[in-house]
């Protein structure tokens, strides 16, 4: 039986390029491979015919001979360098379709991006609110001068890994498919260092300290991150370096506590100022301001100073400063001061509790409670 034209077998034109030849064969191989059609003699013949056609048309020299002399020009070579009728589906998948997944027969080690690094930057509240520029020192992996980055001792060279033949990956067959994994022996490098460099212990890199300038935008808070592109660990096999993430941690402040865009602080006042009212100077991040305390102010009352908080790093209106007053009980009193307070206390009691309504109502409630319980 006369052989069919190879272009007809693959269903392509005579001026088709190698890429389309591969696509056509891939389509037929997926359809007719014996592993997918067990016991089907017709499918097996179709697969062999397609494989023979692909073997010739995918090779420039064989294809030129076929175009000039037909089957007579390649009959002695057809199938010699191809997959043949006995090739497994996983072999075809790896060799023909490997370019889809970046592996297969290319024999190239995979370039991997370097790992990202993290650095914790401690800031004062003022620095975080206003923004600043700081210098930091971080460990850095640089190419070893002793081996030029090869990892091998001077006078020696890394050897091609015998497990993956320098590809950096090995194939594991699972059913019809071939799954590529990083070579466990060379860990994807494709090479083995027999005599490690004494300076870098075979890694090709040594650790050094480098100084970086970090621009901290105004309004950052604890947990915010600043990314320094390309300042992480170097890539593997020519891959790009990772990034350095500077994570902000704001130190505890002596006066202010931050909650988002607002600031809080406690302002101690004397019971005289609380009772009679007065004017106090309170601190803000922009300087001192006057705070007017009305008479009869109770502990815990909040006073809001608008716009004296924090402008968020992502924009928006500034927050407020909320001052919580705390009435301070006097200490280390003299005898005269104590006598004056006892006299003051007596005058308060004579008024029938009008000057201390909360205290009066509380004790009335306690008295009622005990009367109801009848202890």
Task: Give the helix/strand layout.
Blueprint: H1 6-10, H2 18-32, H3 41-57, H4 60-69, H5 89-96, H6 98-101, E1 117-123, H7 125-130, E2 132-143, E3 159-160, E4 169-174, E5 177-182, E6 191-192, E7 205-216, E8 225-228, E9 244-250, E10 257-259, E11 262-270, H8 271-276, E12 278-284, E13 287-293, E14 302-305, E15 321-328, H9 335-350, H10 357-373
Parallel strand pairs: 1-9, 11-15
Antiparallel strand pairs: 2-7, 3-6, 4-5, 8-9, 10-11, 12-13, 14-15
Helix pairs in contact: 2-3
Task: Note down, in words, how this protein is organized.
With 375 residues, the protein is of the alpha+beta class. The protein folds into 4 domains: 6-87, Helix Hairpins, CATH 1.10.287.110; 117-250, Chaperone, DNAj Protein, Chain A; 257-328, HSP40/DNAj peptide-binding domain; 337-373, no CATH class. It is 28% helix and 26% strand. It has helices at residues 6-10, 18-32, 41-57, 60-69, 89-96, 98-101, 125-130, 271-276, 335-350, 357-373; strands at 117-123, 132-143, 159-160, 169-174, 177-182, 191-192, 205-216, 225-228, 244-250, 257-259, 262-270, 278-284, 287-293, 302-305, 321-328. The strands form 6 sheets. It has a 4-stranded mixed β-sheet. It has a 3-stranded mixed β-sheet with strand order 1-9-8. A hairpin with a 2-residue loop joins β4 and β5. It is elongated and about 130 Å long. Residues 79-107 have low confidence and may be disordered.
